[in-house]
Amino acid sequence: MAIHHWRRIVLKVGSALIAPAADGCSTRYLLSIARFIAECREAGTEVVLVSSGSVAAGRSAISFTHQPLPINIKQAMAAVGQSRMMAIWAQLFDFDCAQILLTHDDLKDRRRYLNIDNTLRTLLANQVLPIVNENDTVATAELKVGDNDNLAALVAIVADADALLICSDIDGLYTANPRTDSSAQFIPLIPHITPDIYAMAGGSHHAIGTGGMLTKIQAADKATKAGIDTLIINGQDAAVFERLLKGEAAGSRFVRQLERISAKKHWILNTLKSRGALVLDAGAVLALQRKGASMLAKGIVTVTGQFEKGDAVQLTDSAGVMVAKGICQYSSHELQQIKGVHSQQINAILGYCSSEEVVHRDDLVRL
Predict the structure, then answer these.
(1) Which of 126, 128, 161, 312 could crosslink 156 through cysteines, CB 3.0-4.6 Å?
(2) Whether the Cβ atoms of residue 151 and residue 102 lie closer than 8 Å to each other
(3) Same-domain pairing of 150 and 255
């Protein structure tokens, strides 16, 4: 699948690539990855980078030799290593990078989820590369996603990505561990993730990595069910990135489940309770149904119900027929003041403009 077919990708790079010696960052494998990211952006494909490596990057600054590392030692190493890791990435690009640190609580909380979504969207719109990592400096076991493979899948869902690329230190999924079993066979295409696929996974062999093939399959399971193609590729092989840029097959591809709507839109449609409704004019209804447009204040005729920014609302036509449901960027009180006006007038009326869209198309499910 060619890069130009992907509007937005999430690329996950693990500690084994960032810190191959498990003690400090290295650009050994990062140069080809950075070039791939730059080429994707040149081709018009947006990239979100999920990068491990903060603990490994800060390891030399904290004196501790025993294994396993206690949580406070890991957090201290991560505190030092975050800036070191970001510095390594920043020196490889001639465009701006932004750091986003997340915990599991950030992703399950509806308002923080919306803020993450908005931040990613704004960064990408301004040609800034978002670099995401788990917030290891503050996260305890109950707050952690636990590994950056699954974090990358959750970020891909939040970002409404078309593809998730998980870099490994082997070519992809094998029937067994190729390092210990010479009969292990490479699997280039996985149409469905079954218990047999999970049975092929082993643990992590790397001193710093928190995941192995199991967490990569878990991540692929999450992403494909959300309508996102997922590839496990060898991040140590520069030729892999060349093949991807040419539209050639590389790594193990987990096929997205086409019968499912994205997990994010499934969440909006079936989990979030509607707190109000917006009655739209005929032009706005047509733009939603036929053009897949975002919902603007100009197309709103009537606002019903009491709701806050981040609440779900129904979008209806003049006859009261529901045509869509989405997450609203303004409260009902604010919308009463800006309904029917152009986006450029919002700031003059409210004194601020938190979003030009009342409901962004990424946060909207058409019916």
Answers:
(1) 161
(2) yes
(3) yes
